[in-house]
Structures are given as C-alpha cells and as structure tokens.
Design brief:
Elements (H helix, E strand, L loop, with lengths): L5 E2 L9 H7 L9 H17 L5 E6 L2 H10 L7 E6 L3 H12 L2 E6 L8 H10 L4 E5 L1 E2 L4 E2 L2 H8 L6 E5 L11 H4 L3 E5 L10 E6 L1 H10 L9 H9 L10 H17 L1 H21 L3 E2 L10 E5 L6 H10 L2 E2 L1 E2 L8 E5 L6 H17 L8 H11 L1
Parallel strand pairs: 1-13, 3-4, 3-5, 5-8, 8-9
Antiparallel strand pairs: 2-10, 6-7, 9-10, 11-12, 12-15, 14-15
This protein binds pyridoxal-5'-phosphate.
Pyridoxal-5'-phosphate binds next to helix 3.
Length: about 375
Amino acid sequence: MKEKTMVMIPGPTPVVRSIQDQMGREIQAFGDPRFVKDYKSVIDDLGQLFGCDGKTFVVAGTGTLAMEMALANTTKRGDNVLIVSNGFFGDRFTDICAHKGLNADVLQAEWGHVVSPAQIEAKLSEKQYSVVTVTHVDTATGAAADIAAIGEMMKKFPDTIYIVDGVAATAGEYENLAEMNIDLLFTASQKAFGVCPGLLLLWANKKAMARRATLGVIPEYYCDFDKWVPIMDDPSKYFATPAVNLVWALQESVRIIKEEGMKARYQRHLKNARAMQKALEALGFTLLAQPGCRAVTLSNLIYPAGVEDAKFRAALLEEGVIVAGGLAAYAGKMFRLGHMGNIDVNDEVAVLGVIERALNQCGHAVPYGKGVGVYLEEMEK
Ligand SMILES: *Cc1c(COP(=O)(O)O)cnc(C)c1O
C-alpha cells in the first residue's frame, strides 16, 4: 500500500495542509484572549455565511449529536415529527425520536429518488407536526433534496420548524437559512468543510430559538441551546471545554470558504461533480441517484456487470485510494465516492486513473485515459 492514502469517502474528506497545520499548533488556554477572539470570529463568520438571524453553535461532537441537538431543542415528548428520508440517515432520526418519546412519521423515497415538496405538503396537511426533518444529501444514495423548494412550501406551515440535515452537504451544496426559509441547519466538521472529525456546526434562526424558549427545562444537558448561547455570544465564558485546535482548523476552513465565496464554492462542486459523474458513466458505472436529484458532494456508483466489489475496492486501496461500500440492498453492488471539500482537479484525475486501473484488474476492460479524458474535457468547458 502507498504511504499516502487519498480518503475519498463521504467523510472524513481530505484535510489540506493549511488546515492540518492548525491541528498541530501549540495549545492555548480556552480563556486566552487570542483563542477567544478566534472562536468568536468563526461563530460570527459562520452565522453570516449561512444567513442565520438567530444563533450559530460550534460545539465538540459529531453530526449525530447535532441531529439530537436539533430535535432536543425544538420538540417535547409526545410531539409529532415528520421525517423526510432519502436513504439511510432518516432512519437515524427515527431512532432518535423513539428514544425521546416523539411520534415519528416517515416519508421515505425510493433509493435514488427524493421526496417531493408536494408529498411533504400533503403529509403536513394531515396533522400538526412540531418539526419536519429533511436530509439534504443522503450518503447512502447520493440523492439531494430540493431544500429551497421545500423551504418555499414550508411558508404555508409557520408553526412547524424546518430542520435540514446538511451533514454531507453543507459547504459543498448551496445552503442559506434566510434565502431558503430553513429554521435549523446542522453539519459536522469532517464533511464538506474538510476539517478533521470532532466538531458539530448548527445554525438556529429566530423562529427555532423562539421554539426553544417555549420548552422550558429540557431533559438533555450537553446539547441544550440554553447552555451554549452564553458561550457562543461570549466565548471567554466556560460551559464545557472547547476543542481548541479543531476550532482553529475550522477557522482556516472558513477562511478558505470566504476567499472562494459560497456560491463559487457550490459552482466548483457542481462542475466537478457533473464531470466526475459523466466520466464514471463512460467507464461503465450507473449512478444510483436519478438525474435531477444528483448530489454535488458525492456519487454512488453501481458496478458494471462482473466487477466484484471487494476486489475492486481492494485494488483501489492497493493504489492508495479509499472509497466506501454500498449500504443495505446496495452492499456489494455499489461503491460511494466522496468529491467534496477542498479537493482539486489533480486529485480527481488521480482518482479516475486509479479507478481505470482497478476496473482493468477486475476484468472490466477500459482504455486507459477514457474516464480521465471525459473528465478533463468537461472541466475545460
Ligand atoms: C455523516 C452523516 C451524519 C452523521 O454524522 P457523524 O459525524 O458520523 O455523527 C448524519 N447525517 C448525514 C446526512 C451524514 O452524511
């Protein structure tokens, strides 16, 4: 195996040198005025970048904790929750609801498709839901929900909190709370932000914060908004020790994002994703996600006939590229390729070259350069 391994799974994603360097910095006290200033600037920048008129939270934990935090602060036991699932992570929301004594109804899309705003509207018209959760991009399927259209529809339901799970999307796909009428959005550091795992990022607008205020004391402690708001407003205060170096790493990631621009970053992801998808189709793969709902952050690729999953992925690993396997019914039939965050054209050329080699080793003959050629032609356009 190569010494250098490209981690092309749907998170963690490659961490660029300048972000790695922040992880290696000498520690500072969390009350050090220099760190307090850095922490505050990250929180403020993130609030602005994502159009949040309420509160932005940067807390040690993973995306799963953010899922729990979202529901903990917007619902109480016995509430109705509508879960819009386009794959695997909707099931996790269902499980969290069971633990919390919430009544969950699930709208499940066939894998590779997404639930439409009209289907959600019909369901919301049946009874009063406290919140609706939508997975923006589900890593199990590579399908992306139309969160802007759903947000527009949600204007008809002002008493329902609209929660978006952006964990495999945020900072790759375009998202903005104010523009898209999203009440609560969350992600984790290791996906399109291109930071090491360990931080959750959560945005709650004024409406979501007002809902929290109606709940009084909630059973959860660590993920209670009320515990964190004083710290997010003034990080010199203490609630629980901040992940100092991860905050710096995130600060560098945010600096890169600001320099690139949110919309330009999305356009880069879009162009790259469509070029990758066209190249991979040319090599014989079939995309699970249907045209019209394909994510820009990852692709889920069904093997051409005869290519064996374990052998293919072992061949990739041998050449220094790690991808993820398919889930559930697609285990052994598909692989999942992340292409989000701070990756560039040269990374993708390398990945496609390795895939071409692995296909040939697995008995699916492709001319060398075929996928790379299609990709580069698309990128030149
Ligand atoms: C990765 C992921 C999560 C879970 O995040 P963890 O950091 O692994 O806890 C939740 N939702 C989606 C859509 C994801 O892709």
